[in-house]
Each structure stands twice: as structure tokens, then as C-alpha cells.
Amino acid sequence: MSTFSGLNTATTALWAQQRGLDVTGQNIANVNTEGYSRQRAELQSVGGTSVAAIWSVSKDVVGGVDADTVIRIRDAFLEARAQAESGKTAAMTVHDTTLAQIEQAFREPGDTGIQAKLTDVFKAWGDVANNPTEDGARTAVLQKTATLVAEFHTTDAALDKAWSQTRDALGVLAEGVNTTIGQVAELNTAIKKATQSGQPSNELADKRDALVLELSQSIGATSTAGDFGVVDVSVGGAALVSGGSALRLTVQETSGVPGTNPTDQRLVTDPGGTAVNVGGTAGGQLTALRDTMPGYRDKLDGAAQALATEFNTAHAGGVDKDGNPGVALFDDGAGNPTGITAKTLALAIGDIALLAAADAGTEGTQTTDNRNALAIAKLQSAANGTAVAYRQLIVKLGVEASVATGNLQTQTVVASQVDASRESVSGVNLDEEMTNMLRFQHAYSAAARMITAIDETLDVLINRTGRVGL
């Protein structure tokens, strides 16, 4: 090794250690930056030329050190796990929230829900059975029944409102996703250009990967690494981002008429109109819109229909105060006692004299008989009655909500463990960075001392050789 080549070796050492200190400083500066991945300067030794010059007889293998490459420390497996778990957690969060909204709509158990109002109706019929000719007891039946009908309407309206809010939230989410998708495509383009020109792109990649993680939470997206640092983003097998190009997502009803069918909501690509099987928050919202909320609304409609059928049948089995056969107690508001839903349930009787409290055997005469009123009051405990069926519905809702909450808690722990593992790899450790800083500092001092030694050697060779005795 010539003396002057030693200067080059020492110079590359100075630059490499300075590069390492710069990267360490960047890590320390971004210790609290969300989405930042710690970086590391890759030091590689530089040897001599692999093919010597024609007349060269040198066997030098010393060329110093190269520190041009700065990499991000990330684990691809943990990143993929984080995307999958974050999407799953988001979907389960929406499911838990949806069931909580349904519980709020039913307001059970409590004094304001359908169960309490239905109990009041049965008690009112019991009072009529005790005093079949008393107008006050009969008036109470109509009032309590009207209150029960209003409670069905209130619960149905609350479910409708929750559905509409979820539908609006899905539309807002889709717009946010489209913005994020566009940003990922733009960053892909910038990263590719920077990589091809040899410019640093680590910070751009961090920002891009943070946006991809947002897409994982929003729609269950996953990413695949491509050439020149770009990533392709796909959802349910559909590629939303490919290099610098991107597709949009829009909410669509299969019927083409918004709101006509609560179960036909879906997300499709724009352009193309291809249905996308999304996950994450959007997947949870679609499940709520198409299955969970319509399912419980159907159960509420079934309860309203069962209530009307049970009471109309029982009421028709007796006679009113004037001895006439009992008429329908409930209808759909238009005089039709069939096809009733929670929204259309209506009290068909407005006159207390029409309440059929007496047994059918007393038809044709004014009577004080109470047997039919007593039979209606006993429907509260009927094994296949509306009251029992409604209680079973509420119990099922409570169990489902409890299970959803428990599953979400478990999933949150799993996701937290994955995030902790990912952070242990890509996060900044201040103790480690302090160690690296001291290591690079000492190496820099050693390289500087090497230059000083070479300088002194050259000074002797140039200024003192041949001057012995002068």
C-alpha cells in the first residue's frame, strides 16, 4: 500500500463514520415520529481492482470503506402480520359497535323498552279481568297498548337511524380510502424515481407504508413489494394500486336505487364496477348493513307480527261489552291485520266498548264475564307466546354482544403483541443509538488519527529524507 492510498483509505473511513453519525442522529431525531423506521448505514469494505492494469504488478487489496447505502430496518413478515391483524381488529370493532347500537335501540332491560310496555299491557288486561265492566280498566288497556305500539315504532326508527348512519359512514370512508390510494400511488412514483436516480427514499417509503397500514385498517388491504421500492396494494384479490396507477372505490346498491334494499350494499371499483370483497372497517360496516342490522330489524318485524297475530286471535275468541264478537286489536294502519311490521303496527280499536273481555259463549248479550280478558292476560307466560319469544330475542342479542366484546378484547391483545414485535424491530431504541453514536465517534477519531500519522510520515519523507547531517 502506498502512502497516498492510505490517505484515501482514511478519508473513506472518515466519510463512512460521519455517515453513520448522521444516520444515528436522524434516528434519534425521529424517535417519537409515528411510522418512522430506524435506518442503518451499510458499511462495506472496498477492495482493490479485480482486474489489474496491463503493466501493474501491485497486489493492493485495500480501498477503504463504502457507506453509500442506508437501509430501513423492517421485518416483512411482521409488516404483513400487522396489516392482517389491524384489518381484523377494525372489522371486529365495527361489529362490536353495531351490536351496541342495536342494544341501545332496544333499550333492554329497562323501563322504557318493549318488554316493559308489553308487561304493562298484560297487567292492564289482568285489571280488566278483575273489573270487566269498569271503564277505567278498559281505558288503561287502550293506553298501554298504544304506548306499546309507539315503542315498536321508536325501536324501528332507532334501527333505521343506526343503519343510515352506518351507510353514511361507509360513504365517507370510501372517499377517504380513495384519497389514501391516490397518495400511495404518488409516493410509489416518487420512490421509484428516487431509487433509479440513486437518491434517498427511506422517508418517502415510511410515509407510504403508514398509508398502506391505514388502508389495511380501512378496507383490509395487503401490500406486495415490487421493483425499485414500489409496493402493489390489493384487497380481496383486486389490485387497487399497481406502481403509480390506482383505482377508486365507490359504494353501490345492486338495485340501483339507494335505500330500497338495505342488504344490497357493496363496494365496487371505479372504473370497472367490479365488486370488491373488502375487510377492515369497511368490511365490518358492510356486514352491519347487509346482515346484522337487517337481521335484527327482521326479528323486530317478526315480533310485531307475532304480537298482532296472538292478540288478534285471542281477542276474536271473545265478545265485547255489547255482546258482539271481538274484532282485530292490531292492523297495519290501513285496516289489514296481516303483513304487519314494526313500522306499520297500529292499534285498530279506539272505543273501550269494543274490547272483548267476555267469553264467546256470552255472545249476543251484555255481560260481565271476564274469561277472555283473563285468557289474554295469561298469554304473558305462554310457552310459545310473544312475551317469551321477545325475551329470548333480547337474551340472544345480549349474548351475541357479549361474545363480540370478548372476541374484540382478545383480538386487541393479539394486535398489540404484533405491533410490539414490529416496533421492536423497526422502532428506534435510544440505548442502541447511543451505543452506535459512541462507536462511530471513536472510529472517526481513529481515522483522523490515521490521517495525522500518514501526514507526519509524508512530512518526514518529503522534507527530511536526504538531509542527514544538514
From TrEMBL:
SUPFAM superfamilies linked to this entry: Phase 1 flagellin
The organism's place on the tree of life at top rank: Bacteria
UniProt domain Flagellar basal body rod protein N-terminal: residue ranges: 7-36
Gene Ontology biological process terms from the UniProt entry: bacterial-type flagellum assembly
Pfam family, one: FlgK_D1
Alphabetized GO MF terms: structural molecule activity
Single GO cellular component term: extracellular region
Location of the Flagellar hook-associated protein FlgK helical domain: 99-330
Keyword Metal-binding: no
Keywords, comma-separated and alphabetical: Bacterial flagellum, Cell projection, Cilium, Flagellum, Secreted
Domain annotation Flagellar basal-body/hook protein C-terminal: ranges: 425-463
Subcellular location: Bacterial flagellum; Secreted
Family note: Belongs to the flagella basal body rod proteins family.
NCBIfam families given in the database record: flgK_ends
Protein name: Flagellar hook-associated protein 1
Organism: Modestobacter caceresii
Gene, per the UniProt record: flgK
